[in-house]
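On clarity, I found the account of how folds are encoded harder to follow than it need be. Since the whole study asks how a given chain folds, the encoding of that fold should be made plain. For the editor and my fellow referees, an illustration may be useful. An entry of this sort, consisting of the sequence and the corresponding backbone structure tokens, reads as follows:

:::
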Amino acid sequence: MTVNQISVFIENKYGKLCEILALLGNENIHIIAATVADTSEYGILRLIVTEPEKAYKILKSNNVSANLTDVLAIATESSAGSFARTLKLFTQSGLSIEYMYCFSLKGKSILILRTNNREAAREVIRRHDLDYICENDLVNL
């Protein structure tokens, strides 16, 4: 029901993002999804990759500030409003969405999200029979 996500804290300086992505590319790590949130001084790069543990070790061995965390991955229909309908189920259950991002791959729309209560979020997924994605599912899409 969860996938590993790597969060990388990077200085908001010219070329830093490219350096980090090159570290992964040089080791044949494929990026499935990515998002960047930035401020004037630093950014947070969130990545879903093919080999998260290996990617994490590569980053750490290169003195990159990174964390490995679990996030929820939910497949939705690829239509207008599908993300809103899915998120509404979580908000109706009193859950806050800390962050989310999404992508489409081979006709599927995938919603990556983190809530303020992972166990309650899992119950929402079970109760509403949502189509969740595991890490192996993402790699094999």
About this structure: Helices lie at 16-26, 52-61, 82-92, 118-127, 135-140. The first strand starts at residue 2 and ends at 11. The CA atoms of residues 23 and 62 lie 8 Å apart. The chain is about 35% helix and 40% strand.
